[in-house]
């Protein structure tokens, strides 16, 4: 379950104490329900480098920790707004404000001690904004971030590339030091051009939404072959961009794409205390999903999530990372072996077709 809590300014209300108390209350509700886990999203805007320390201080000082929760950091694509306000002079300022503190704390954890603690709970980096806004199509002649000093917002794929490039380097550094890594998991394909999905196919670990894959059979097929995760939120899409009955989720699921159900802004979209149950129950009713279908979707959700290997092993089996039925613990997932064997067999046949019979199948799923 994804939940956006960044709509309040954590510097307000006695340095965010009120929001921290609300967040702890939600933590306690999750812990009481026992079987619900959440990935909460908070924003880093890139206006100044101190944002990371401010956020980490709020997390650590208010003891916002729960075994049921990990954190995603979302980056709003608002360069044009900050440029008009005079906060930044180039797009490179945004990148420096976002990534320099992360490199500093990785090289020397004592330089940002609270941030070092907080990053142990951070599992992903997200890109957010209204994808339907008109944008200039990217070309090879576009200026570098340091040269991007005009008032126009860079294209989606421009943001994606430079965030991916910096995050890739950062993760290699963190891996070399035995630290946790941060995966790239942007919003993509909720609206706008299909170029967005092409960019995230090349860079993202998994994406949120992806409903525009219905408009591009080629990209849809590539996402299937690569088994890139799609965390889809039909109720959110229904409120903003696409009627529920036109949502491609059931079609993607039948075709074997790596789909899961998630919430998006549950305080705005959902009506009950159990927003994720809403997503599952309505999907099951409208699309006639069986209990086997729901269990497979839930298993996909665990695999896509940013929770640790130990947690995933506990939830869906110690060998969940193996392909096909070898990675299925039916006692935990309630997914029949024959379902995963079918998925794996069809996927392997497709890969052999694409690779002219010379496909190399890794033993383990990334």
Write down the overall mean pLDDT: 91
Strands, count: 9
Radius of gyration computed on alpha carbons: 21 Å
Overall tally of structural domains = 3
Strand ordering within the main sheet: 1-2-3-4-5
Shape: globular
Largest sheet: 5 strands, parallel
Amino- and carboxy-terminal Cα gap: 21 Å
How many DSSP helices?
Answer: 16
SSE order:
EHEHEHHHEHEEHEHEHHEHHHHHH
Percent range for β-strand residues: 5-15%
Classification by helices and strands = alpha/beta
Helix content: 40-55%
Low-pLDDT runs: none
What's this entry about, in short?
By secondary structure, the chain is α/β, with parallel strands linked by helices.
Which structural traits does this protein have?
3 domains, 4-stranded parallel beta sheet, 366 residues, 9 strands, AMPD, 5-stranded parallel beta sheet, alpha/beta
Polypeptide structure, described:
The structure is a single chain. The chain has 366 residues and is an alpha/beta fold. It folds into three domains: 1-184; 214-307, no CATH class; 308-366, no CATH class. It has 16 helices and nine strands. Strand 4 (122-128), helix 6 and strand 5 (183-184) form a beta-alpha-beta unit. Helix 2 packs across helix 4. The longest helix is centred in the first third of the chain and has 22 residues, at 12-33. Belongs to the metallo-dependent hydrolases superfamily. Adenosine and AMP deaminases family. One of its GO terms (cellular component) is cytosol. This is AMP deaminase.
List the helices and strands and how they pair.
Elements: E1 2-4, H1 12-33, E2 38-43, H2 50-61, E3 69-76, H3 79-85, H4 91-107, H5 113-118, E4 122-128, H6 156-176, E5 183-184, E6 187-188, H7 195-203, E7 206-209, H8 217-226, E8 229-232, H9 234-240, H10 249-255, E9 259-261, H11 266-269, H12 275-287, H13 291-304, H14 309-316, H15 330-333, H16 337-354
Helix pairs in contact: 2-4, 4-6, 6-7
